[in-house]
Amino acid sequence: MRIDRLDLRLVRLPLVRFFETSFGRVHDRAFVLVTLHGDGEVGYGECVADANPYYSAETTETSWHIIEQFIAPRVVGGSFAHPREVYPALGAIRGHNMAKAAVEMAAWDLYARQQGVPLAKILGGTRTEIASGVSIGIQDSLDELVDRIAIELAAGYRRVKIKIKPGWDISAVDLVRARFGSIPLMVDANAAYQLSDAGHLAALDRFDLMMIEQPLDYDDVVDHAALQARLKTPICLDESIHTVKTAAQAIAQGACRIINIKPGRVGGHAQSIRLHDLCAAHGVPVWHGGMLESGIGRAHNIHLSSLANFSLPGDVAASKRYYLPDLIDPPIEVRPDGTIPVPSGPGIGVSIVRERVERATERVLSLSAA
Ligand code: OSB
Ligand code: MG
Fold this sequence. Notes:
Distance between the termini: 17 Å
Helix content: 25-40%
Mean pLDDT: 98
Bound molecules: 2-succinylbenzoate, magnesium ion
């Protein structure tokens, strides 16, 4: 697989509805789209870095800079026998996993299209459909939270995750349990607590939650281990897991019982597969996280979710919860039973609507082999 050209596009799309986490409310999503050209085919990757450095240190502008100055020179004009060779080729670059992943994932799409097979097959996926859950942000009122959950359950989603933060936690969960009974329910704190809050968080134990996601600092493992020892509720790590090695240490220390995999956070599909396999070997279930992706990143997520140890419903939901219209047509839809079929066409297997991409594009850069 020779890479002849890499295109960068800064895209901005309005969200159908605002999304609020413990670090703030957003109304739109800016992201970098990567297109790789090789041997007459194209592959697409979506960088999940946000406009701000609140979920992670990376931003749209750092990802653009790193891809343009450091990743493209190591990829464009190069040849790869397999897309799993892309991540090692970027080994000199510390961190910047989201920038790396955007390019690496485009290479997987390109390779799968060249082979004429769905990406899931190349990744080693075994499912033909995935179980879908929803991530529901912090709302203006608890009444609104209840309304949102009722809408998503009626749509068939298999699991509900609500965002929590100090002041929007125990009472929200208590109300959701009172209204909706024993639905599959979990919470995500996005690092809003400290170890000294352990007593407060232990009050969640009586609600039989599937897990509490990333309660403590974005870069912490040790305090999570101490917290897990004090909680019945399983801890799931998101922000803290950037490498397979950190995941191995977190599992060994008992810092989590579940791991959320986002390919952007770990450097792409190849690292996600390694992380998935490590967790499987330790009996740690994984699920696929979401980063408010457009249909392009979402399609990648669906293919990756088809691997066997993605045994819990992911934050991979229908396009219409995020963007109307999406950049792809038809959009990703969820069936009444809460599943999403894995696309069966070559590569990511979705049709990108060029005019919609053009309309949403704020900046373009094309990098060709010399
Ligand atoms: O922590 O999982 C998270 C969105 C942006 C940044 C971080 C997170 C999220 C979500 C939304 O929870 C998941 C989605 O619906 O895409
Ligand atoms: Mg999370």
